[in-house]
Amino acid sequence: MERTTAAHPVRTTPPVDRAGRGGTGEPAALVGRDTEAGLLHGLLGRLRTGRPALVEVHGPPGIGRSALLDHAAALAHGAGVRVAAVRATAEEAGLPHGVAGRLLARLPAHPAPTGTPPPGTAGPGTGRTDGARPRRTADLCAEVLEAARGGPLLLVVDDVQWADPRSLRALRLLARRLTGVPLMLLTSRNSAVPATADERIDACALAGEDAVAHHALTLGPLSDGAVGEFLTGTWRAPVDAAFLADAVRHAEGSPALMRSIVGRYVRHGWTPGTAPEGRLEESAAEAVRERTVRTLALLPDELLGVLRAVAVAGPDCTPGLIDALAGPRALGTSRALALLRGTGLLAPGPRPALRTAAAARAVLADLGSEHREELHARAADWAHRAALPDRALARMLLDARRIGATWAVEALRREAEECRATGRPDRAARLLERALREPVPPALRIRLLTDLSAAVLPTGPEAASRHLYRALQTPGDGSAADTVADAETGRALLRAAELLVARGDVDTPRPRIARAADAARPGSAERSGLRALHRITEYSRPDPADGAEPLLPDPCPPERSAEAAVAAWRTAQRGRNIDRARRLARTALAPQVRAHVPLAVQAAAAHALVLTGDTAEARRALDEVLVRAERSDARAVAGLALLVTCLAELRAGRDTAAAEALDRCEGIMPGRCWHPLMAPGPLALRALLHLRRGDRTAAERALATELPPGAEGGLPWAYLLYARGRVALVGGTREQAFADLLECGRQLLARQAVNPAVLPWRSAAARAREPGDPVAAALLAEERRRALLWGSPAAMAAALGEGAAATGAGGTPAPGRERPVSWQYRQALVALGTAPSSGHLTVDSLLGSDRGAAAPRPAGPELPYPSRPASRPGAASGSASASRSVSGAGPLSPSRFPSLPPPPASVRPPAGAGAPGRTAVGTGPLTRAEQRVAALAAGGLGNRAVAEELAVTPRTVELHLTKVYRKLGIRGRPQLAAALRRTAGGAPGA
Questions:
Q1: Comparing C-alpha atoms, which of 515, 556, 561, 565 is closest to residue 536?
Q2: Distance between CA atoms of 769 and 893, rounded to whole angstroms?
Q3: Which residues on adjacent β-strands are paired with residue 218?
């Protein structure tokens, strides 16, 4: 007997102006309910032939139940069927016979002719006028059945779930007596409040299927096509697909919500094509809010308290949490939730929750701020004791008052870390700001500010710096001096200072870092790290006040390794003592002391190794820095490490690897994230990379990028000036190139960075002058002198290579007896061609300490003398890999230097001595590979270290050494250094 029909629309009824309904008798406009409307139309037709029917309509609030009942009533009125319609309300749910009395009052006394007033209005002479309610349930059945015998009758009861028990009992009794009576009972029930066994309205079980037509209609959400038809009918034109998709998403298939959204558009005169962006979402939120506010006004205080508890608890609501927040009440939690679901405010699901965030805000809007914060605080406390996840705790704590407990701060911080890891930095920033409202110890406060800075860095770099400034500040006298009382606080301050310096912010935090360093515990690694960072900020500005290097004990203790790193970087910039710079850098980068050295300071030590020519060692250290920086979410440190990696790859001639490092750096730290003082650095490296590839247009485009205010004056600005000068030099604008390069030199010299390995600006400026220009000659001479004083093979190769190119086709004048020093420089450079590019064999070891002497230097065991090295193509090929520098100089090919005359007789090898690279007792000359391996092994490196340096296997090193021992006539490694000196110098009796 019972047939259940779900909503499966086949055709959509065109929208009709509902304003005319009731006046013209037209059916109510329905959208997407053609199946249900057709079924009701058929049942009404059979009702006129005396066939009774029982129809139940189910669906959530706003799905269109009332509209469907109105449509059925209008159809019945148009067909001449009498109608009595009422709607039950929650207010009269406890009023005995409330629904039954109103239904009896609306019963028509006579058959209603076509054209009479619509159902739901009592016309003159119709229905009961005494207003008395039935004294017994049987009264309703008797009077309704009597009225139905006078003609077909449709009874409509909307929201039957609110009917009082006696009226509901009367309706159930009437449903069992429909057989043989031309009566149709049409009810609707909110599916959010399902009927119990005692509340179901069923036909008589003994009646056959043909006796009473029983249907249950379940209304589902509107289909996309139905929403489209509704919108098209509203504006009399099709809407675009994007607007339709957004409307479907925001309306959630609810006809009521769809009408509210469209009504707001119509009131404001908007159309889908002319409405400002975001109006659809705003209209949906407003519709939900208005609906919520209207419903709240009808709720009793007990239900309102339960609803507020649900709003505060959110998706993590449980009955226990509701009881803790709502307090004692007459209604049980289950019954209260059932009643609230009937209002349509709660979303379907196992946990009670409001449908949207807008509804939750509307529920709590009438509360004062203190009351809201107190509710959230009580909810968070209950959630903490119930061991709810951090996500739930953090959400409740966001709007709570100060808790004053450690668990609140830790929960907020853990959830913020999770948000940052999952790509939600904005929410992470909100959580950390909320955590900072709690009373926390200094170390934790500094860590929270540091985390907050990392969270806002991608979107607000200036705000990120301000948070780090606050981390270096204390509530007391405004300095960090009173807070560095323990190692934990010192480490937190050190990290905050490191992030500022790595980002390039060296001016504003300088005094704060100095005060923190002075207040740190003497002899601690934190004090050394803060001092190292402060020295970096000092050295980064013109005319640094601290001109002297710190005196470090030898060997340097681990807790002062950070200062050793900065001393190495500074020594390399000044170009004074390559051995000391290398030793200090390696001390700071040793595995056993890395934990004591900030990552940004380790990057400075790696840069020192790049300047000494130990690029492979520097790259390994930078890789370690990069891994640790990414693991700790230190974007600025990771970007700095990648910039130094790009410099190292450029110096090694690995343009592709340099471009990859720079691309990765721009992905981690876009240009907007750097401090203005650091912003020119990535642009300069990008321009130099384009220039190395021969793309001058791309280099000019990179240099044309607009810089933020305050970008001039830092060390990266010198790199940008150098890149600008090199690009202008390639473009033929020599005057502009010379001006930019001289300004680059001025910036570097103001910071005492005189080492040409930093930037060979002198030789580049010399190329901007005419051949033979005395200014160019002076610049070249100075760069050669500085390169030889530094002793790095790559720097000297670049200096002499640029000198040959700058002096024209003839190159440097051929040396004679009056110019022996220049000749020795050339011979030393060629000798470096057989040495590894790591810098273990330098000009110092080839020329000795008295390089400035004007007199010829006699041949010694440490100085080889190849015969006419520049005339053999292979003589300089070994140094080609080390001849590139960041300047973009080409390889040190034989064509870059003119052929050299033979050395003076006073310094020639003795007669009968073998040529360099040969032995007097072996079986043949050493090959180039054997010479490299022998030189490294003689320098004290083990087989594995030699293999890593030359990128070969340890077995290959062993084979080469075996051949070297056999050719030199020695038994092992202890005799190797002396044998190489004898072979190189051609000493008698070798």
A1: 565
A2: 23
A3: 6, 58
